[in-house]
Write a structure and sequence with these properties.
The chain has one domain (2-173). The chain is built from 5 helices and no strands. It has helices at residues 2-25, 29-59, 65-104, 114-142, 156-173. Component of the gamma-secretase complex.
Length: 174
């Protein structure tokens, strides 16, 4: 049963994003590169925010609960802010790359429109953030039945998959 829950949850969470990738991104190599670069920029923002969090926690007093709560709020705010800054930096980089591609292109038009770039980059951000969000839930679904023993909802995995599906769709739409 755990294998069925694992695949069901994974397909619910990643099915729509995978179908968007297959039908709108996979046929164009430039879109695939933009998607992978978007995922990479999300990873860079996660790495930098994790580094700042690590330094802040190590430099603070671990016994002061008020300070730890403040650091948690700071970490969440900083992580979201940094992710949006990296999204903007990536957008600016894509605009410059698109201008360069248009300059060397034989056609008069652009290689890819700004809306297509934003969609594909957002899909890359969403897939990578979804993979990081869902990996622990999926590993719990394969475990020896730890989730749900002490009165947790029996719909935990399907709810987590549907929530992640909507969040990845939101990332692609922004």
């Amino acid at each position: 049963m755990t294998l069925a829950v694992f695949f069901g949850c994974a397909f619910i969470a990643f099915g729509p994003s995978f179908s968007l990738f297959v039908f709108t991104v996979a046929k164009d190599p430039l879109r695939v590169i933009i998607l992978i670069a978007g995922a990479f920029f999300w990873l860079l923002s996660l790495l930098l925010s994790s580094l700042v969090w690590f330094i802040a926690v190590k430099a603070s007093n671990s016994q002061d609960l008020g300070l730890q709560r403040g650091l948690l709020m700071f970490g969440v705010f900083f992580s979201v802010l940094l992710q949006e800054v990296f999204r903007f930096v990536y957008y600016r980089l894509l605009r410059k790359a698109n201008e360069g591609l248009a300059a060397i292109s034989d056609d008069d038009g652009s290689a890819i429109s700004v809306r297509q770039m934003a969609y594909v980059a957002g899909l890359g951000f969403g897939i990578m953030s979804g993979a990081f969000s869902m990996i622990n839930v999926l590993s719990d679904s394969l475990g020896p039945g730890t989730v749900g023993i002490f009165g947790d909802s029996q719909y935990y995995f399907i709810t987590a998959g549907e929530l992640l599906q909507s969040l990845m769709g939101h990332e692609a739409a922004r």
